[in-house]
Amino acid sequence: MGMLILGLVLFLGVHSTRIVADGWRTAMMRRLGAGPWKGLYALLSIAGFVLLVWGFGLARQQPVVLWVPPLAMRHVAALLTLIAFILLAATYVPRNAIRARLHHPMVAAVQVWAVAHLLANGNLADVVLFGSFLVWSILSFRAARARDRAAGTTYAAGAASGTALTVVVGAVAWVVFAFWAHAALIGVRPF
Q: Do 145 and 176 fall within a single domain?
């Protein structure tokens, strides 16, 4: 569990600089330069990610069961992860109404993904991993929306074609991940 927690602290800590220390982040970017800052950010993020994946794998070998979720939660989680994939697609597909409305659909996708996995899993490692991402994503979403308000940021309205493409791309990515990649990469078959 220690490696998982260390990885989460490093990964989410790096990704929290805009939440807790936006001024410091801006000063460091000026001091180091954008390229070196991004390189350091990427290096620390990758190290944190590797540690959390490794730590989660180790924790799964000796599970501490907190509760056994009802089978129906798998179906709820499947629906929620479909929504999360559509939100993730909304981050990248131009001119979609989802991004126009939420402004930060990737962080919203992390929220929905984390809730889905908390509902479907009852081990301590699951609660630590997905609970940490849920708390981080709520704080990140709130901070990003506050920055938008402070800066007077406006987002272009979405178009029906961009929104439809977002839903299709998200749904196709979900099918590929749910029916093949999740088992190949995570070792768990959701279906």
A: yes
